[in-house]
Amino acid sequence: MMKISRISPLRISPRIGLVGPLLALALLAAACGGGTKLEGVAATVYDGDCADDTGSSVTVYSGRSENLMKPVYDAFACESGISVRVRWGSSTDLALLVDTEGDRTEADVFISRSPGPVGFLESKGLLSSMDSSVLNLVDDDHRGDSGTWIGFSGRKRVLVHNLDTVPSSDLPSSVFDLTGPKWRGRVAIPATNGSFVDWFTVFRDQYGDDEATGWLRDMVANDARYYPNNVAIVEAVARGEIDMGLVNHYYNYRLAADAESAGQDHRAANYDLADQDIGSLLVITAATMTKNAADRPAAQSLIAYLLSAPAQRYFTSNTYEYPLAAGVEPNPVLPPLSALSIGSVDFDALGGGFEGSEDIIQRSGILSR
User: Fold this and answer.
1) Where are the alpha helices (DSSP H) in the chain?
2) How many of the other CB atoms lie within 10 Å of CB of 250?
3) Could you list the pLDDT tens digit for every one of the 369 residues in the chain?
4) Phi, psi (rounded to 5 degrees) for 315
5) Contact between residue 127 and residue 290 where contact means Cβ atoms under 8 Å apart
């Protein structure tokens, strides 16, 4: 198992002038009054009475979506009595904002859907080490050596395929096989989607620019098809529009569950490539505490809450992600993680390269396919 300890800066364009005003519109508050109860999805995380307001507060810059994270933030606020304010946006834009704000940032906690923004903030000296009581909630492979980040859920890269046109016995063992004539015009790529850019950046880091760029160029030459996101690919595969596609694992489980509840037949399935294949990478989502967190105990309490059993069960039961807290079992429909999936690529190695990945993808020609 590989352990990489270097930190590289995130190479991204200074778009702060455009980012700041847009993100400011998304600031909201999530707090509960004493004696009340939560409703809706948040109640599946915590169904007890809300605590009295403690007077403490924590501000989160959340690079994971409101639809996914708000129930957890609401549950924490209700159960702890600590007020939570959230600024929503993309992980990269929020990391840029923290950098621009510097010592004036309102962020106490930064939540990232991918490694790059964490490495960027680490390289700028803008993150703070957390207490061992928080870091020890996960295995060593799922936290930073410097103690500035901790993983709380995982999203695995898989090959989703149509059950009628591509039986499991006929599937390749590696993403490198997909450039062959057998798969010409049969593979979809969500080239502009953040999860694909995350994955391609790790690909570049592990194999080098020449091999990673060559693979993408060969995929384009093999008539790979562009789709804007993972959902579009899974839907296209399920209806037989395309035979297979590279996606995050949980999208197919969600759409299959929706189809089942509607009494419909879902004709797509996930396929795990070989354990050591880059196509089987697990991308970890992370929580960090900023250097200037105004209330460190409150900030760390929120981060620890993300790794509590109820929150971890929410992530794996409702969104089919892999829980990372020690002792929490994944959703039974998820296959076990192994080999390259677990901790073989460290966040600290991935602070750089996202702008370069986007440039390579743009120049590859995949967006016109």
Assistant:
1) 16-24, 42-45, 66-80, 91-101, 115-123, 132-135, 194-207, 209-221, 230-238, 250-261, 296-306, 309-318, 354-364
2) 24
3) 222 222 233 333 333 343 444 444 344 445 556 679 999 999 999 999 999 999 999 999 999 999 999 999 999 999 999 999 999 998 888 998 999 999 999 999 999 987 778 888 988 899 999 999 999 999 888 888 899 999 999 999 999 999 999 998 899 999 999 999 999 999 999 998 888 988 898 888 889 899 999 999 999 999 999 999 999 999 999 999 999 999 999 999 999 999 999 999 999 999 999 878 999 888 889 999 999 999 999 999 999 999 999 999 999 998 899 999 988 999 999 988 864 543 334 444 555 566 788 889 999 999 998
4) -60, -40
5) yes
**Spatial separation of the C-alpha atoms in residues 300 and 131, rounded to whole Å:** 8
CA gap 100, 29 in Å, rounded: 23
Q: Dihedral sign for Cα 339, 340, 342, 345, please.
A: positive
Chain position carrying tokens 């299959």: 256
339 near 164, Cβ under 8 Å?
no
Q: What is the pTM of this model?
A: 0.84
Cα separation, 196 vs 159, in Å, equals: 12
Kindly tell me the burial class for residue 41, based on how many C-beta atoms sit within 10 Å of its own C-beta (0-12, 13-18, 19 or more): middle
Instruction: Answer yes or no: are the C-beta atoms of 106 and 28 closer than 8 Å.
Output: no
